[in-house]
Amino acid sequence: MSNTAAQEAETLYVYGIVPAGSPEPAVAGIDGAELQTVTAPSGLAAVVHIHRSGPYEGPDEDVKRWVLAHSDVIDDCWTRAGAVLPVSFNVIVRPSERTGSPAIDQLTEWLDSSAGELSQRLDELAGTSELRVEITLDQHAQAAEHAAVRELRAEMESRPAGVRRLLEKRLDKLERQITDQAADELFPVSRARIAAHCLQIQGYAPSSRTKGAISVLSVACLVDELQITALGAELAEIRDEVPAADIRFLGPWPPYSFVDLTAPGPEQDGDQQQGQQPTA
Question: Which of 97, 98, 108 is nearest to 44 (CA)?
C-alpha cells in the first residue's frame, strides 16, 4: 500500500482537545502508542494516535488498563497545556465513507467548524480543576446519644442471645432512620457551603458504599485553583462540627464531569465510534 493510500485508510484515536501550540505530550498512549497532535487553522489541536483496529474491547481488566492509560494522557495534557477538553474513551475518527476524506481531514474540519464553542469552553476551564467531595454519616456514631437507641442498647444487655439478635436488627433500623433524617438536614447546608467555593457543582453516584455509612452528598466540583485550599478548609470545618461525618476530598483532576464531548463530529455521519467516559 502506498503512503497516500495508507494515510487514507488510517483512523485516529482521540484523547482530548487543547489550544494549538500546547506542549507535546510527555507520555505514551494506550498500549504505548505514539501520540501526535493534529492542529487546525482555527487554533485548536487534538491529541491522537494512529489507530489501525476497532474499538478497545475485551476483558474488564484490559478495559480498565486502557481507560487508565487514556486518562493518563488527558492528565498530562491538562498539566502541560493548562486546559483540556477530555474526549470519551474509545472515540475513533475514521475516513469518510461518503467522500473518502482521510480521518485527519475529518478531525480538522470538525475542529474548525466547532472552534467557537470549543475555544470558549477551553477559556472557561483554564486554571480550573475538578474535585469530588463525598460526605457520609456513620450511623452508629450519629445515633449513639439518641434516647431510643440508648434504651434499646440497655435492653439488649439483659436479654438472651436469640432475643439480642432480633433486637440488633431493630437497633440497626432505628440507627439508620435517625441518621437518614440527620443526613437530609445536613445535605442542603453542606452543599451550599461547598458551592460557595465552586464555579459549578453537580451530583454523581459514588462507586461504593461502606456498611453503616449513610450518604449525605456526593458532588463533583469545578473549582478555580485559588479556591482549592479554601474548599478544603470549609470541609475541615464541617468535619469538626459534625463528628459522625466522614469526608472524602478527591482530586484535583481535569474537568471530566464538566465537559460533554463524546465525539469529534456529527454522529449521523457514521464516521466515528465512541465509548465510555474515563473514570476520574
Answer: 108
DSSP state of 1: -
User: How is the chain split into domains, by residue range?
Assistant: 3-114+265-273, 128-257
Determine contact, residues 244/145, Cβ cutoff 8 Å.
Answer: no
**Among 96, 90, 74, which Cα is nearest to 10's?**
96
CATH architecture of the domain with residue range 128-257 = 2-Layer Sandwich (3.30)
* 205-252 pLDDT tens trace: 876 678 889 999 999 999 999 999 999 999 999 999 999 999 999 999
Residues 256/280, Cβ–Cβ less than 8 Å: yes
Q: How far apart are CA 211 and CA 208, in angstroms?
A: 10
- Measured at the CA of 197, the angle between CA 208 and CA 222, to 5 degrees, comes to 55
> Reduced to 3 states, what is the DSSP secondary structure of residue 202?
strand
Residue 189 DSSP class: H
